[in-house]
Design a protein that fits this description.
Blueprint: E1 3-14, H1 54-66, E2 70-71, E3 74-75, E4 78-81, E5 91-94, E6 101-110, E7 113-126, E8 130-134, E9 137-141, E10 148-154, H2 161-178, E11 190-200, E12 210-215, H3 218-237, E13 245-250, E14 255-261, E15 271-272, E16 279-280, H4 283-290, H5 297-308, H6 312-319, H7 322-333, H8 338-356, H9 367-378, H10 384-397, H11 401-408, H12 416-429, H13 431-438, H14 445-455, H15 462-474
Parallel strand pairs: 12-13
Antiparallel strand pairs: 1-10, 1-11, 2-6, 3-16, 4-5, 4-15, 6-7, 7-10, 8-9, 11-12, 13-14
Bound molecules: zinc ion.
C-alpha cells in the first residue's frame, strides 16, 4: 500500500526584545555567565508580579502580520502546568484558548508550482531555563527563563519533508525581515517541533501521529521527517500501530527515539493567568504596528520577477537576504542590467563572501564598481572571462574596474586583423577539430574559440572570434 505523510509544524521563535517577557532582565544572554540575567520574577519566587513586555507584544503582532494572521481583538495568557527543574514557576505562561493571532498562511514554491500552507495560530509564551548535564550532576541555568517566544502553529498541510522545509524557510525569512526575531538557529532563536502521521493515499482520515521536538535546523527537521516516514511505513506494513507519543532526535545516528507518551491538554491543567490583564487591540493600534512592516521577502521576490524579469530562483535568493537585496538594488540603480547584476551577485560575489566569511557591508566592491563592470562587458570592453580576473583585483583593492583594466592592460581586443591572426593559429593547431567541424559537427567550433581565448589570455572579443572562425572555416 502507498502511504501519504501528513505533516504539521510548530515553530518557536525568540522575540528580539531588549528585556524578557514579564520582567526587566536582559534578554540577551548569549555567551554570558550562567544565571546572570535573572530576578525574582523569572525565577518564580512566590508573590512576584509579572508585567507584560510591550515590545514583545508588538513584535508578536509584527510576526503575526508578516504571516498573514488576523490579530484577535481580545486575547489572554494562561498558565500551563508541568514540573521540570528548568521551570522554576512550576508553570509556563502561555496562551491556551484565546491566542494573539489566528488564521494565517504563507505561500511556498514547490515543484508543482506555488502552494499555500495555512497557519492555525500564533501565540506568545515565556521560555524555560536550560539544563546542563555534567558528570557530577545536572546544573540549571535560568538566563533563558522568561525569554519571550512566539509559537507559530501550522495546519497539517504539508505532505513531504521538502514541503515542510520550504514552509519553515519561508516563515524564517519573513520573521527575520519583519524584525520580530533574528531567527539565528545556531543560538536557538528558532526551533521546530514536527508532528507527522501516515495515511493510505486517497484516505481522508488522519492516521496516528508522532511528534518530534526541539529540532534546531532545517536539515535536522528534514532528516527527522524522512526517518519518521520510513519508521511509520515499516510499522504499518507489518500491520502494527503507530503510537501517539513525543520523540526525540538523535542527530548523530539520524534517528528518532521514543521519549514519552503524548500529553493532552488536560494534563497541563490550563487556567487563565490571574496576574496578567488580557490583551486588547483596536484596529488603529494594529495599523500603527503594521506601519513598521517593511516590504517582506515574498513581496520583494515578486517585484524582482515583474520589474526586473529575474527568474524565480534568483529573485528568491536575492530577496531572502536583506543585505544582498539592498546591494543588488544599488547596483541596478547605478545602471547595471538587472539580470547581469543578479548573476554576478548570486554566483561570484556570494562565493567570495562565503569563502572569506565577510558580509556585504564589508565587501570592497562598491555597487557603482560592479555596475561599471557589467557595463564594460556589455560594451565589449572586457570579456566575461577577463571580468572575473578584474573582479578578483577589485575584491582586494576596491579599485574601479576601469582602473584595473587600464593598469593591467586587459582591454578586450576587437581589432579584426589581430583576432584573425589568433584564429588562424587555432585552425592550424587543431586539424582534427577543424575536420570534425567541416564534417558537420557545428559544436566543435567551441573548442577553437576556447583555444583563441586561451592564447589571447582572454582578451579576444569572443563574438568576433566566433564570427571570424566561421568565415575562415567556410573555405
Ligand atoms: Zn527576570
Amino acid at each position: 500500500m502507498k502511504y501519504e505523510p501528513v505533516i504539521g509544524i510548530e515553530i518557536h521563535v525568540q522575540l528580539a526584545t531588549k528585556t524578557k517577557m514579564f520582567c526587566s532582565c536582559d534578554n540577551d544572554s548569549f555567551g554570558k555567565e550562567a544565571n546572570i540575567n535573572t530576578c525574582p520574577i523569572c525565577m518564580g519566587y512566590p508573590g512576584m508580579l509579572p508585567v507584560t513586555n510591550a515590545e514583545a507584544l508588538e513584535k508578536g503582532v509584527l510576526a503575526a502580520l508578516a504571516l498573514n494572521c488576523k490579530i484577535e481583538s481580545f486575547s489572554k495568557f494562561d498558565r500551563k502546568h508541568y514540573f521540570y527543574p528548568d521551570l522554576p514557576k512550576g508553570f509556563q505562561i502561555s496562551q491556551y484558548d484565546q491566542p494573539l493571532a489566528t488564521g494565517g498562511f504563507v505561500e511556498t514554491e514547490t515543484k508543482d508550482g506555488k502552494k499555500k500552507i495555512r497557519i492555525h495560530r500564533l501565540h506568545l509564551e515565556d521560555d524555560a531555563g536550560k539544563l546542563i548535564h555534567t558528570k557530577g550532576g545536572t546544573l540549571c541555568d535560568y538566563n533563558r527563563s522568561g525569554t519571550p517566544l512566539a509559537e507559530i502553529v501550522s495546519e497539517a498541510d504539508m505532505h513531504s519533508p521538502e514541503e515542510a522545509r520550504a514552509y519553515a524557510e519561508e516563515v524564517h525569512r519573513r520573521i527575520r525581515a519583519c524584525g520580530a526575531s533574528t531567527c539565528d538557529m545556531e543560538k536557538g532563536m528558532m526551533r521546530f517541533d514536527i508532528n507527522i502521521s501516515l495515511r493510505p493515499v486517497g484516505q481522508e482520515k488522519f492516521g496516528t501521529k508522532a511528534e518530534v521536538k526541539n529540532l534546531n535546523s532545517f536539515r535536522f527537521m528534514e532528516m527527522a521527517l524522512k526517518y519518521e516516514i520510513k519508521r511509520q511505513t515499516e510499522l504499518l506494513e507489518k500491520g502494527e500501530k503507530v503510537v501517539q507519543e513525543t520523540r526525540g532526535f538523535d542527530l548523530e545516528k539520524g534517528i528518532t527515539y521514543s521519549q514519552r507518551s503524548k500529553e493532552e491538554a488536560k494534563d497541563y491543567r490550563y487556567f487563565p493567568e490571574p496576574d496578567l490583564p488580557p490583551m486588547t487591540f483596536t484596529e488603529a493600534e494594529i495599523s500603527k504596528i503594521a506601519t513598521g512592516l517593511s516590504e517582506l521577502p515574498h513581496e520583494k521576490e515578486a517585484r524582482y520577477q515583474q520589474k526586473f524579469a529575474l527568474n524565480q530562483a534568483d529573485a528568491n535568493q536575492l530577496a531572502s537576504d536583506a543585505q544582498m537585496s539592498a546591494y543588488f538594488e544599488e547596483v541596478v540603480a547605478k545602471g547595471a542590467d538587472p539580470k547581469e547584476a543578479a548573476n554576478w551577485i548570486t554566483s561570484s560575489i556570494l562565493a567570495y563572501l562565503n569563502e572569506h566569511k565577510v558580509s556585504f557591508a564589508e565587501l570592497k566592491v562598491s555597487p557603482e564598481a560592479l555596475a561599471q563592470m557589467t557595463k564594460m562587458i556589455k560594451n565589449g570592453i572586457i570579456s566575461k572571462k577577463i571580468a572575473k580576473d578584474v573582479l578578483e583585483e577589485m575584491y582586494k583593492s576596491g579599485k574601479m574596474p576601469e582602473e584595473v583594466v587600464e593598469e593591467k592592460g586587459l582591454k578586450q581586443v576587437s581589432d579584426e586583423s589581430e583576432v584573425e591572426k589568433w584564429c588562424q593559429e587555432a585552425i592550424v593547431a587543431n586539424e582534427k577539430i577543424v575536420a570534425d567541424y567541416k564534417g558537420g559537427n557545428e559544436r566543435a567550433i567551441g573548442a577553437l574559440v576556447g583555444h583563441v581565448m586561451n592564447s589571447s589570455k582572454g582578451q579576444a572579443n569572443p563574438g568576433l572570434v566566433n564570427k571570424i572562425l566561421q568565415k575562415l572555416l567556410q573555405n
